[in-house]
Amino acid sequence: MSKHPTDPARNPGRPSSPTRATAGRTPAPPVSALEKPIQYLRGVGPHRAQILSALGITTVGDLLEYFPFRHEDQGRPQTIDTLQLDTPATVIAAVESVSVRGMFRNQTVNARVRDATGEMLVTWFNAPYLRDKLERGQILRLYGTVGVNRDIAQMINPRVQWLDPDEDPAQWDHPRLVPVYSATGQINSQQIARLVETALAEALPAVGETLPESIRTRHGFIGRADAIRAMHQPRTLEEIGEARRRLAYEELFLMQLAIGLQRRWTATHARAPALPVTPKIDEHIRRRFPFPLTGAQNKVIEQITADLASTRPMTRLLQGDVGSGKTVVALYAALVAVANKHQCAILAPTEVLAAQHFAGIEKYLAGSRVRRCLLTGKTSQAERKQMLAAIEAGNMDLIVGTQALLEQRVQFGRLGVVIVDEQHKFGVSQRAALRGKPQSSKGRRTGPGGKAPAADPLLVPHYLVMTATPIPRTLSMTVFGDLDVSVIKELPPGRQPIITRLVRPKDEHAAWTEVRRRIAGGEQAYIVYPLVEESDALDLKAATLEVTHVAQDLLPGARVGLLHGRMKNAEKQAVMREFATGRLDVLVSTTVIEVGVDVPNATVMVIEHAERYGLSALHQLRGRVGRGTKPSICFLFSDSQGEVAQRRLDVLCKTTDGFRIAEEDLKIRGPGELLGTRQHGWPEFRLANLLEDADLLMQARDDAAEIIREDPHLVQKYTALRAELRRKFRDKVAFIDVG
Ligand code: ADP
Ligand code: MG
Fold first, then answer.
1. For the chain, what is the mean pLDDT?
2. How many CB atoms lie within 10 A of CB 614?
């Protein structure tokens, strides 16, 4: 087996199909039509290139893969005398006259058009660019909803296509499926469609096949170039369906292939320390908890201890609803490492959360000999230096921290277990860095992307990811596909259900009355106020004003504190402490990041503008209440009239089953939103829909496994796949280059 399968000298079988080489040592192949910078496509230029780059389009190939999100079925053209009021229709007619009213951007362009059967008015608002493009005598294809203006049929803001007057009109008489692209304020769908047309003419022949022949025939897939053409210029609805299925499969298949290779890489190149649990260790650990563990916790601990006892590195995802008791499970795993004279790192996405974890763990570890520390970006230089030295020397057992632990190249003496809370807030690259975290005492310097000697497996820690976002199976298979999954379904005993109410503006008064009643009774409240952007000064001002409003008008006499993303860490912690110790009655929070907050006496939550959040985010937020013994309530304030918003929020009122909520979220918002894919590092699917394409996903997984069995490094039969994976995932899948 070659150690450097990407080295061109050793790997002559590179595909001739267009590839984008990213490895520094590989000489750049000739620029193909697909790699041509979009700026040089006819009709683009530097200004538009910039606009397109905001849509993720930098090359002609990118544009070809910028698929329409739907197709508008414009039907066959109709004559003007057959038009029906309030119905969408296509009309082919000649321009008789054009007139313009208004100034500048507010210009209204009016045209009178005529066909053999009658006359129609056409009005475009805010479309000054049309003024110079419309001329008497032109033949237009217009698609819009039919209205009426002084007894004459009228279309307002119809879609327009200029037809060639020299063409045979019979040519025009066919149904039309028009691609609709997601657009921006600076470029509209029609303009994108025209550019795509040019790109197809120029570059479609350069599109190579990525799927192996065997897979194409097995599933009856059309070719890649055909599928791309059909997405943009379909002749029939069936054609769109076929093209979509093939391209969606390809996305899923490549993802499954990448995941399968990663899994294989870990299995063959990585070893973890064996951390067995003896009955004595088990008893010692359990003694730390003031309650018996629940059945669900015990089951998960069984799975984890089985993993830890093996030298095969654990990569396990622990899912459990907020408050299900994941921290206890995490601490159990940590203490197994410590009992085996190894270190454990527990990482949280924010400093507040890390501090909370540390405080929570302190509670259980009071009086124990476990050496532990909290290390975040805000730890003072002197303390940090001391801690780092202790960590490297192996004199620190349990390290709680933030990403800072990863980014600042902390050298662990004997890292046995890494536990990451709220994994979905982390990027994949960090995940990879973690997994390949070298052990300083062994003098290793590289992770999976480096040149690990194959004969001497890389020593990596066991790896446990905790998430409170219940992830539907299809999603965990794809995004977290290389992880085993454990689920805690049962909540600890004595938990109170949370009542959730959707509150319309007219009912807000009653909600505030309830909040006041509870505060008067000694209970505490959260008020959550959304910030669109953490950095948005305007929003911050609004939130600050809101605090004043809450304190003075809505909850007079209550002690109100504010927590927002711009506060210094120490300030945040001070406010949290005040709230946790009951010196504040109300916490107004402008941020949703503090998901680990645990104040049992807080029993009421008000979420302003609830429609602005994802369902899973709301579900996590409301999990801040209902943590004690008193019944809790969550008010979702929303003035949104939208039906979708209403339906979504209703789901939340009806169920507390996080999995159902996540599925609903997935349906409505897609996986990117649910998991924050952009931070996550995986490209989002363009066409695949994880709910509707579940069967495609299963096929893709099986096919990928077969390919890996046949050609584990994709260097013999499947070099085209290898190139495509590299092109698609670029630096995200370093394991491809490790072989
Ligand atoms: P999560 O991290 O999953 O949101 P936590 O681990 O923070 O949940 O647990 C939530 C609360 O439940 C904590 O206050 C914890 O002390 C309590 N708890 C956890 N496990 C049990 C148990 N087995 N019995 C009773 N209470 C428990
Ligand atoms: Mg927790």
1. 81
2. 20
